[in-house]
Structure formats: structure tokens, C-alpha cells
């Protein structure tokens, strides 16, 4: 049975959920989007009632959405005060990239042996769609959201091509967590530079190389991502939250 797709980057792609989103689903997506886009900054505290008023929704779906976001580590409950957007820690980057090296690296290695012609064609389409904003033109929120959809879809297709459903679920989970960092990374000029090991390199290593070559290139891609993200934090402008948002 074909794996269910989670990340939808084109209207003709079925995302696998197959149901109308509930009010809780809608509240979850709206709150999560604000955290990812940093309109709700790390460390910001709020009450359930305040957020419900802001979203113009009742408290029940907001409460249920916050419970889900708390389980995923996006918010923390504060006794007698409400909630806080989980602060970002430099150690989280280290742990996240170490885990991504394991799961994305293995996914790429397995995909090199099992990728189908259809999956290969979709990766090519994603490469064509990922013509990035030139570094001198800072991408806006809409462009970064588009880039996130393409990035997530690219890595998910590789995970599905691995043929390992558990690995696919792990990759999806870590991609969703990484969205909190993507805005910072994509705002740094080196993200678009010639030294960045990108999706095109990963794609070639999967369709033309061996399992070990694919794993090695995925690791190089993730290391490029980690390096640029760290620079985005240490050198970035104030609209990324600055170093004060990092503990």
C-alpha cells in the first residue's frame, strides 16, 4: 500500500488525511503558523482566552489545539498563568541536526536503491519549482512559506522512496519541528550561495549514485543547512528575534 502523503505542495496532490478539518485542526494550524512565522515569538506568554479572542474562535478548539502543540513541544503550559511559546535553545539545533543526519541520511541511502520513476520525476518537478529568491531580494513570508512546502515535500518523497514507513513518519515529524528554524535560515544570503549543498546535489546522488554516496550527500546538505542557520542566528537582523531569543 502506498504511503500517505503529509506535505501537499500542489493542488492535485492528495495529502492523505481525507477528511474535512475540524475546528481544532484549524486552530492548531493557525496557532502553529504564527509560531513558525514568529508572529508569536519564543518566550511570549499568553492565555487561552486571549488567543481565542485573537483568532475569533471559541475556547474549546483553542484549548485542544494548545494541548496538541504542547505535546509537540511548540508551547509550554504555565500553572496559573496560561501558556508560553517554547523558547529556542542552541542545544535544540545540535540535537535536531544529529537526528536528521540519522533519519534523512538513511532515507536517502534506501531511496538510492528503491526510488521509482514517478518519485524521481516529482523530485525533478520540485527542483524546478524551487527557483529561490535571489539573495539581494529578501524573501517575504509568503515566499518562505512556499519554500517550506517544497522543502518538506522533497524530503518526504525521499523518505517514502526508502520503502520504510516508520522512517517516513520520523522524517515527517522532524521536518515539522524544523519549520521553526527555516525562516531564520532562508533569511541569510549564504542560503542561496554556491557553497550551499542543496536539493539538486541530493537528487543526483540518489538517482545516479550508490546508497553510501546518497547518505554522504544528504549529510553534506544538512551540514550546509546547520552552518547557515547558525550564521542566521549569530549574524541575523533583529526581525529573526536576535540572539536574545536563544538560550
TrEMBL record:
Pfam families: FCD, GntR. One of its GO terms (molecular function) is DNA binding. InterPro entries: GntR_C, TF_FadR/GntR_C, Tscrpt_reg_HTH_GntR, WH-like_DNA-bd_sf, WH_DNA-bd_sf. It comes from the Bacteria. Residues 21-88 form the HTH gntR-type domain. Keywords: DNA-binding, Transcription, Transcription regulation. The keyword Transcription applies. The keyword Transit peptide does not apply. PROSITE patterns: HTH_GNTR. This is GntR family transcriptional regulator. It comes from Martelella lutilitoris.
Amino acid at each position: 500500500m502506498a504511503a500517505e502523503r503529509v506535505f501537499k505542495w500542489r493542488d492535485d496532490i492528495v495529502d492523505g488525511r481525507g477528511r474535512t478539518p475540524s475546528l481544532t485542526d484549524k486552530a492548531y494550524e493557525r496557532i502553529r503558523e504564527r509560531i513558525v512565522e514568529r508572529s508569536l515569538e519564543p518566550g511570549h506568554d499568553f492565555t487561552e482566552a486571549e488567543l481565542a479572542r485573537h483568532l475569533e474562535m471559541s475556547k474549546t478548539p483553542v484549548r485542544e489545539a494548545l494541548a496538541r502543540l504542547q505535546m509537540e513541544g511548540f508551547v509550554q503550559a504555565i500553572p496559573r498563568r496560561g501558556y508560553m511559546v517554547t523558547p529556542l535553545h542552541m542545544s535544540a539545533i545540535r540535537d535536531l541536526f544529529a537526528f536528521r543526519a540519522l533519519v534523512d541520511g538513511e532515507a536517502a541511502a534506501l531511496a538510492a536503491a528503491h526510488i521509482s520513476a514517478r518519485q524521481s520525476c516529482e523530485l525533478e518537478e520540485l527542483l524546478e519549482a524551487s527557483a529561490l529568491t535571489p539573495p539581494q531580494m529578501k524573501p517575504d513570508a509568503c515566499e518562505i512559506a512556499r519554500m517550506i512546502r517544497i522543502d518538506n515535500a522533497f524530503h518526504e518523497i525521499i523518505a517514502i522512496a526508502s520503502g520504510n514507513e516508520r522512517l517516513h513518519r520520523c522524517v515527517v515529524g522532524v521536518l515539522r519541528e524544523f519549520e521553526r528554524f527555516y525562516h531564520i535560515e532562508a533569511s541569510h544570503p549564504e542560503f542561496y550561495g554556491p557553497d550551499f549543498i542543496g536539493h539538486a546535489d541530493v537528487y543526483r546522488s540518489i538517482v545516479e549514485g550508490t546508497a553510501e554516496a546518497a547518505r554522504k550527500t544528504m549529510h553534506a546538505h544538512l551540514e550546509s543547512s546547520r552552518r547557515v542557520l547558525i550564521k542566521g542566528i549569530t549574524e541575523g537582523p533583529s526581525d529573526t528575534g536576535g540572539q536574545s531569543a536563544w538560550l
